Amino acid sequence: MTPDFEPVIGLEIHVQLKTRTKMFCGCELSFGAPPNTLTCPVCLGLPGALPVANARAIHFALMIGLALGCELADHSVFHRKNYFYPDLPKGYQISQYDEPLCRGGELAGVRLHRVHLEEDAAKLIHLGASGRIHGSEQSIVDFNRGGTPLVEIVTEPELRSGEHAREWLSLLRATLRSLGVSDVNMEEGSLRADANVSLRPAGSTPLGTKTELKNMNSFRFLERGVTAEIERQRAIIEGGGEVAQETLHFDPASGALTTLRSKEEAHDYRYFPEPDLVPIATTAEMLEQARAAIGELPAARAVRFERDFGLSAEMAHLLAFRSDLGDYFEAANAASAADSGHAQQLANWVSGQLVARIGEQDPATSNVTPAALATLVELVSARELTNGTAREVLDVLLQSGGDPRAIVAERGLASLSDDSELAAIVAAAIAADPDAAAKVRAGNAKAIAALIGPVMRETRGRADGSEVTKLIREQLGV
Ligand code: ADP
Ligand code: MG
Ligand code: ZN
Prior knowledge:
Number of helices: 15
Strand content: 15-25%
Bound molecules: adenosine-5'-diphosphate, magnesium ion, zinc ion
Largest sheet: 10 strands, mixed
Helix content: 25-40%
């Protein structure tokens, strides 16, 4: 990206709510049920069927609005958004237009435009080449998904790169997950994001013409798609052309961006108030219930971690926004002696060594209990284990669980705490390499590595590196 252009990105995020039934009918929600088994006249759009709004979905939407600091409307209206598509049997989607449930709000420095309730469309399955009839490709429809409650969250155009968009969306997901209102799984489609992208000259305020990337279904694709679109627009502008307002599809396999449709406007949808539903009148009681249902949010948890455990802001944030890590860290901390002061080391081991080994897996499902990790950290800080051997013990714990002290005893991994034993090994290493010893004596500090190596090999990593260096210097009198 040349510094002359600033990328401008706004996200529209769809969140499937984890209610028992659909948004406007009593059909159950069940991911993976046999196709077209969870339907009724309402969600199939049969004439005369009447919708009834799902109170629990409204409750969840209010929780989301509160958690994101939105202004909640006490009067909010459902509208019909009219368009034709095979996944929309009524010929319109019940959504919200100019009187959404929530406006404004903010998360991690990015302001929100609005948050509203709507229903999901059915699922279209494109059969591809195998499904050709009379030479053309066929698609089939599963109406089970049609009518699933959705909350749409629209940001202001305040994200600045593909990476920023991905990171911010992961913070939003953590926040939504902590509310327990959705599975927020991008692969399964319970969290979906469209990205609006434009460029403008750096330092200028007016927005450039935007394109919209539809339905990014993973965090990685979102980042890659936005990055690719920024580059595409930059090439157009630098080549003297103009970006056309259109909706694009990003193909993660090829990296290609292809046009889905050109410019569409709100008036194309002929929005009008849904005559079969009363407006949502949000009462103080509904707000109180929503507020009471919200536990500690990741942002607040990060503040607490920083304050109570002395973690850096960055570390506190990392653990708080990956709640499985935060839970594990808190459990390990509780398992270690109350005022042991090991919180920072525990945080380092959880976010560093443990995550390096298990990646995205929830550590609570690994073989390492929080108490075992706490013990491991205690052994290191009491210098009974070196960092290197502690990592070995962690590998054993991950393989087969157990107690670190037992593993250390079984495998003879305890640090060489007996100074005379270590001193003898150091003396032997010096005697075995008089050349290196002479160099170190003569002031060549680097030559000491040739003496440290054999000691570490001889002690199989059970000696502390700085202790070994100290002993060598002592024995050589430098
Ligand atoms: P539309 O009517 O096309 O849906 P909206 O104004 O409702 O457009 O905005 C939809 C999303 O696009 C929002 O997240 C908004 O922040 C973002 N957006 C709007 N204009 C731009 C722009 N010029 N560049 C990037 N994002 C934009
Ligand atoms: Mg839009
Ligand atoms: Zn139904």
